[in-house]
Amino acid sequence: MSKSNLKNLEKIKDTIDNSVDLSEEEKSNSVRHIEEWYREDQAWGIFIQELSEISPKIKVLLAELGLL
Prior knowledge:
Layout: H1 3-18, H2 24-54, H3 56-64
Helix pairs in contact: 1-2, 2-3
């Protein structure tokens, strides 16, 4: 994830933490989900990179399938 995306992620988390409309449980659940999505995004990037090392054609196929 790029530095600008990380900054945006931190802004989102800060906004959630500072929200007066959300309960503490909602804040905690929201941040937990965001962190989970972040980890999934990182894992997907690593997966694609490793597949691309096997064959650059795989990346093209995944793009054609709309997965990239």
